Every structure is written in structure tokens, then in C-alpha cells.
Amino acid sequence: MSVVQTIPAAATPADSTQREIRVNRQDSNTSSNQNRELTPLETISHGGPTLQGPPANVSFAAERLHRLNHMAAVFRHWSREGYFPQSFWTNPLGVHFGLLTASDIVLVNLDGRVIGGNRSRPANTAGFLIHAAVHEARGDVDAACHCHSPAGKAWSATGRRLDMMTQDACKFLGDAHAVYDAYGGIDCPLARPARQGCILKNHGLLTVGRTVDEAAWLFDATEHACRDQLAVEAATAGGVNGVTKALIGEEQARVNFELEADADYCYAEFQVYYDYEYQMSGGQFTK
Ligand SMILES: [Zn+2]
């Protein structure tokens, strides 16, 4: 199991590889914006201020600290969810997910060299190969989440895509997810830009995002969709008692996808878990 987030080792004025910081959409209620379409976050925010996406227009140092803290929170959330680790990427080997802090995280470049962060423990070799392949192929994402979560691992053994039968599954409509059936391979299963989730056959799940929070929220959604699919397949097996499987219609699935697979939407949704982990640890994971 592993999570990785690419974190530049140092900030320079010429650092053109850093993604652009998006502008917060805090002007949605002004008259000049009345005729434009609402963003997904504006759509779900009824009354009061609009739920916000990732922080914008912050310094490099603040962005870097934000990424590390949120990554540590994701590990603590995974531990609480029972996604127990067998392997790690930029998190070090030998530290329980539930105890991980920002200063434990190892910074490794795509050549596999440790270039910063915690140097007291190694990263995981298999995790490095998977995540390096993703980040080399997908310059549009800053984070990838992979681990051997229970339902994801079980459903992956079927080698089947997810059916569009829950809101969680609809986040992976059409090309947004794929099944990668080369067990043990290290080719990038998410090479196509539209893809944000992948079922690694006989292995586990892999999601990507522009923030670790987005990738983590999508990971939870994939895991939940796999859990639900396992339950529905079991309940409808053999047509016992006339129980059948109902799918969400194409149009409604598309509406769900366009709203709930939005990057800012996913980031904002994960903040309840970030806040929960912060409160439960007294902020320990930011150490
Ligand atoms: Zn794995």
C-alpha cells in the first residue's frame, strides 16, 4: 500500500514545472458572473459561503507544508478505515499509517534517489516503481494513491470494471476508470489523461488527483464502489428470490460524474477527514 505526492525539493523563480495555482471562485455571486454555469462546489453549496477547493495564491513554502500535512492526514484516515499497509512509497517503511507524521515522509525523485525529507528509513521499492510510472506518464496529476484495501483487492480478482449503480461508482464513468490485467507489471495503467481510477487485477486500487486530498477521496469512492459491487453481486447471484441488479441510467450517471468527479469538489469533500484526523491527533501529524 502506498501514497505518493510529488513535492519539489526547492522553490526557484524559474521553476516552471510547478502547476499553476488556480484562482478561488469567491466572486460567484457578483452580477458579472450571474450568467455563467455554476461550479460543482457552488452547485452543492446552498445558502451561506461556497465550499472552497484547495488554497490558492499561497507561497511555495505554504503549499509544500499543506501537501505534507494533508498527506499525513490521508495515511491516518486510511489507518482508521482499515487499509493496512504492506508497502509504502514516499511514506517510509516501518511506520504505521496511523502514527505517520509529515516529517516521516520521504521525498524520492523519479530515478529512485532520496532527495529530501526523512532519510532515516527507506521507501518501498515496489511502491516506487508503480508511482514513478504514474508520475512520468501523468504530468497533470500531483498525487497518486495505491493500497491493497479489502474490497478493492477482492473485486480486482474478478478483472471486471465497476457497474454504474451507485454515486461512488459514477465518479469513474466511462474512460474515468480501467482494469489493468497485467499482474506484476509496472506499465502505467493510468496513462490516458481522462483516467482517474484503475483496478489492478489481483492486486488493488490506484487513483490519481491534482491534490492528495482529491486522490484520497477518489480512492475511498473506488473502495466503496467495489464493496457495494461485491455485495450486490452476492445478493443477485443465481437470481435467488428474484433479486436483480439495477443500474443508474446513462444521463443521470453523467450528471453525477460531472458534479462529483470535479477536482475541487473531491478536495473539499476530503476536508472533513482531514479535520477529523487533526482533531483526533491534536495536530500530531503536522509535526
Ligand atoms: Zn500494491
TrEMBL record:
Residues 26-37 have a biased composition (Polar residues). It comes from the Eukaryota. Residues 1-54 are annotated as: Disordered. Residues 69-230 form the Class II aldolase/adducin N-terminal domain. Transmembrane segments: none annotated. It holds the Pfam family Aldolase_II. InterPro entries: Aldolase-II_Adducin_sf, Aldolase_II/adducin_N, Aldolase_II/adducin_N_sf. It comes from Apiospora phragmitis. SUPFAM superfamilies: AraD/HMP-PK domain-like (SSF53639). This is Class II aldolase/adducin N-terminal domain-containing protein. Coiled coil: none annotated.
